[in-house]
Amino acid sequence: MSVANPAKAALFGLHEAGAGGRRALILSLARAANNLTPAEIRQLRRALFEEEGVSRDEAAALFELDRAQNAPCLEWTEFFVECLTDHLVWQVRPTGVLAQEQAEWLIGEAGRKFSLSGFALLANVLAESDRAPQWFLDEVRKRARAPAVQAALAAAAAMNGELASA
Predict the structure, then answer these.
(1) Distances (CA, A) of 137 to 68, 91, 125, 133, 150
(2) Does the residue 20 lie in any domain?
(3) For residues 87 and 53, what is the distance between their CA atoms, to the nearest angstrom?
(4) pLDDT in tens, 72-131
């Protein structure tokens, strides 16, 4: 992967991404530990999708950024899920197949700290994959029953009910 565009890095107040390029940009955002705004997420999307996709190191850095978000906006979850699903399911050959190694990496990263974005990614990877290891499906089902996921889904349902009645 190439070095991040300096003009795009400057949008985040970073004057040089340095040798780490896009990965360094993502990690610097994670170290800042601020929730990203929708405008910042659009900038990050442009910085990462100007090429053919993200590397494994950049994908790991995106997980670090996800763990740094304590109240992520909907745009973050959408971006995170789309970007990493693309990395895991569509950038590798054969496309549409979640291989054993990828599944192990994904479960490991998603298990380091619970986030609704991380769970949404697991569910989306299953939905997008034509084939995935059976143990991965079983693990995602198990996580779907976890109290944190159930609470988040109940809160989302309540919020949707409030929006529908407004």
Answers:
(1) 27, 21, 10, 7, 18
(2) yes
(3) 7
(4) 899 999 999 999 999 999 998 999 999 999 999 999 999 999 899 999 999 999 999 999
Q: How far apart are CA 91 and CA 84, in angstroms?
A: 10
Place of tokens 């996921």: 149
17-26 confidence digits (pLDDT tens)? 444 688 888 9
Residue 1 resides in a domain = no
Number of domain units in the chain: 1
Q: What is the pTM of this model?
A: 0.82
pLDDT digits (tens, 9 = 90+) for 74-91: 999 999 999 999 999 999
Residue-number span of the structural domain to which 102 is assigned: 6-165
CA distances from 3 to 11, 28, 122, 146 (A): 15, 14, 29, 40
